[in-house]
């Protein structure tokens, strides 16, 4: 029986290539998961850092008439909204673990912020403008329009 060396070589090369590609694919997959988890942890760490600020802003948004002539306070609200919008963009890009972000209640907090901001937008037009024009990813991520339609009813 004669050994077909060219066949053995090709089969060996094909096996090595497929094995290498499979290994590389698994490495990329697990590395991507690890990076998403790391990004999510950074987002959550920042969320913990600004929790007190967000609570203050939620209180402020309940009484927008009290700070409608206070640009620094208005800018604080806009800054948190911009940060939430960036987080939404990161989630949409697949760079963060959306399930983790949702499981700790951050997505719900973002939706509460948008709803409060919308109500305050009647008094402070900058909020209304930001919600309509700037925070589009935030609105999409939180399903803001759908949530509003559910509250309005049929």
Structural commentary:
- The mean pLDDT is 83.
- The chain is built from 8 helices and no strands.
- The protein has one domain.
- With 154 residues, the chain is an all-alpha fold.
Keywords:
single chain; 154 residues; mainly alpha; elongated
The number of distinct β-strands equals: 0
Q: Tally the structural domains.
A: 1
Mind telling me the C-alpha Rg? Answer: 24 Å
User: What's the overall geometry?
Assistant: elongated
Helical/strand content category: mainly alpha
Biggest sheet record: none
Note the run of SSEs as H and E: HHHHHHHH
Q: Give helix % range.
A: over 70%
- Strand percentage, roughly? under 5%
**Residue-averaged pLDDT, rounded?**
83
Instruction: Please report the distance between the alpha carbons of the first and last residues.
Output: 81 Å
Determine the number of helices (DSSP H or I, runs of at least 4 residues).
8
Unreliable residue runs: none
């Amino acid at each position: 029986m004669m050994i077909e060396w060219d066949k053995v070589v090709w089969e060996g090369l094909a096996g090595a290539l497929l094995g290498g590609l499979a290994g590389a694919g698994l490495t990329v997959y697990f590395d991507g998961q690890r990076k998403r988890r790391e990004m999510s942890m950074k987002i959550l760490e920042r969320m913990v850092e600004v929790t007190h600020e967000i609570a203050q802003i939620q209180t402020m948004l309940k009484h927008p008439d009290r700070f409608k002539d206070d640009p620094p306070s208005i800018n604080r609200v806009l800054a948190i909204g911009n940060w939430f919008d960036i987080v939404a963009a990161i989630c949409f890009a697949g760079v963060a673990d959306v399930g983790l972000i949702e499981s700790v209640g951050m997505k719900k907090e973002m939706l509460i912020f948008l709803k409060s901001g919308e109500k305050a937008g009647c008094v402070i037009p900058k909020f209304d403008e930001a919600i309509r024009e700037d925070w589009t990813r935030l609105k999409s991520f939180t399903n803001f329009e759908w949530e509003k339609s559910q509250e309005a009813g049929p």
